[in-house]
Amino acid sequence: MAVLKSFKNSSLLALPAITMTGHPQHSQVSMLIQILLIFTVISIAPSILIMMTSFVRIVVVLSFLRTSLGLSTEPPNQVIIGLSLFLTFFIMAPVINSVYKNAYIPYTKGSIGIKRAYKIGILPVRGFMLKQTRLKDLELFVKMAKLKNIRSPKDVPTYVLIPAFIVSELTTAFEISFLIYLPFLILDLVVSSLLMSMGMLMLPPTMISLPFKLMLFVMVNGWYLVIGSLVQSFK
């Protein structure tokens, strides 16, 4: 019983209180509803992480890089996704810190409500997405949403900004992937031409070009260039 009592009174495991205003007095939401809200946030957290951060661009470029090298399973999917996640945390660190300091901490201290915390916390996330979103893609979704009186990108609602950001990220990722794919494609063409001129038509060109691709990638310090270029593309 003492263990259960200490577990119940532990401040480390306490959930942040959520208050709702309907009548003059604030009423605290029951613990059951708080747990339900937390599980709801946890369930949609992967989608938020993937669609509203730098994850999409990074994982698409790394996947194209593996394909351009002619490798089907190396590096494994777990390595690519893990590297993409940690690079996402690295790139999004300023945004996360801003949300934590300006929205989460005041909310847990009770100085602001949940609506105010959301309005403050979404600002740095919107700023990041607006910086990476192409104006053409933003105009497309504003037009499809039939919004009027949009004087600047900052006036665009978040539900319109998110799909425009995702499309822009995919476009940028494909452009970067094309630049990565091009030298390896040229190497494949050179190897294929040499094999045809030597009469080795039955020998798969990819089997011969793979070692040269790996050697070229290692000699130019490929991981350094690719990861550095990806991170710098968000500046």
What does this structure look like?
With 235 residues, this protein is mainly alpha-helical. 72% of the residues lie in helices and 3% in strands. It is built from nine helices and two strands; from the N terminus they run H-E-E-H-H-H-H-H-H-H-H. The chain has a two-stranded antiparallel ribbon. A hairpin with a 4-residue loop joins strand 1 and strand 2. The longest helix has 40 residues. The chain is elongated and about 75 Å long. The chain starts with a helix and ends with a helix.
Low-confidence stretches: 1-27
Compute the CA-based radius of gyration.
Answer: 25 Å
Strand order of the largest sheet: 1-2
Q: What structural class do you assign from the helix and strand content?
A: mainly alpha
Query: Considering DSSP H and I runs of 4 or more, what fraction of the residues is helical?
Result: over 70%
Coarse morphology: elongated
Q: Count of DSSP helices?
A: 9
Helix and strand string, N-terminal first?
Answer: HEEHHHHHHHH
In short:
This protein is mainly α and 235 residues long. The protein has helices at 2-8, 31-51, 55-68, 77-109, 114-132, 135-144, 158-197, 205-219, 222-232, and strands at residues 19-21, 26-28. The chain is built from nine helices and two strands; from the N terminus they run H-E-E-H-H-H-H-H-H-H-H.
Any descriptors?
mainly alpha, two-stranded antiparallel ribbon, 2 strands, 3% strand, elongated, disordered N terminus
